[in-house]
Amino acid sequence: MLTVAALLATAVPAAADGVITEHGPLPSIPLSGVCETHFDNNGTLWVEQYLSSQVARYDTETGAFTEFDTPMPLSVPGGMALGPDGGMWMPEVTGNALLRVDTSDGGMTEYKLPWLNAFDAGPLHVGLGLSNDVVPGRDGAMWFTLGGLNAIGRFDLTTHEFSQYPVPGEILGQVQSLLGIIKSGPGNTLVMDVPQQNRVVTLDVYTHRYVSYPMPTPLSLPVGVWTDTDGTIWVTESAAMKVASINPATGAIREFPLFGVGGLVRDVVDDLLHGSVGSPLPTPGPITQGSDGNLYFLLSFPLATGLGNRIARMNPTTHQVTTWTTPSSLSSPCDLQADRPGSIWFGELVPNKIGELRIG
Questions:
Q1: What predicted TM-score, i.e. pTM, was given to this entire model?
Q2: Based on CB atoms within 10 Å of each CB, which residue in 42, 289, 310, 333 is the most buried?
Q3: SS3 assignment, position 196
Q4: CA angle 148, 208, 102 (to 5 degrees)
Q5: Distance, CA of 327 to CA of 282 (rounded, Å)
Q6: Which candidate, 207, 113, 208, places its Cα nearest to that of 162?
Q7: Would you state the pLDDT for residue 175?
Q8: Which pLDDT band, with edges at 50, 70 and 90, does 173 fall under?
């Protein structure tokens, strides 16, 4: 179950503000599917590896990696989140299960979804629930996307009971198995992208009431969602190359275009100067908010154009955008988080590394 690779044993130097430092590569295989990272309550970084079906622990002081195999081979661990119980939670996309990682020793416990089990024999269990992302709700439960059932799922951490809440009008939820992102929303709600319907929805964890927000631009492919500290919902529209804000009190939506010929030329020149090449198209992906109050998101999201090499920052008041280039070319940054004040951490698919952007 456990494979250990205590590599890179030298101390990792601190990065300067506004500079991206890469850590790794992860040791198991050249392309392990490094995507999402999160810190646990002890300050240890955990890394999702969906191609190798592993979860890695990274010591940011020594640079040592320890890799843990999921109980099921080829389980494709999806987007993860730290639960209120201190465990690191993630879905097994192909395994039709939720997976809890004990952050003290890397031990893993599977909780199989009770729906659409196509095959279940020993360590192999395959199903069509197609859960891709998970987040704790304000009710203390773990909530997750459930694309195969066109729904949002709930797991009670005390009773271990599962529930599901169908998304109104949803008929192509399988797309959620690729692009589904669920995060905490305003008040007692969760917020989730519904890219195949070109909208975003919120769900109240107590009343189970949905509210829908259609994007103004047709076929915009809303992907990333995040709730600002003031309650504003921010959405990245990958195909439209825009960032949108939603006022949940009024339902008003504003869009801020990222595309511009001058910007593309500037980015190409910047790539040449820094020796890191990537797609210059500003197709935004997952989004978060840094400890400085600014919004941070990925450019050239892998499932849109892919092979990008940029992290972007938007001031939520002035809407000014700043970008940084990753040291590795065509890095395809996959997901990002701001768990640790003063920095943004993200996975890089192609170089199989972790990126760290210092934000002061």
A1: 0.93
A2: 333
A3: helix
A4: 65
A5: 18
A6: 113
A7: 74
A8: confident
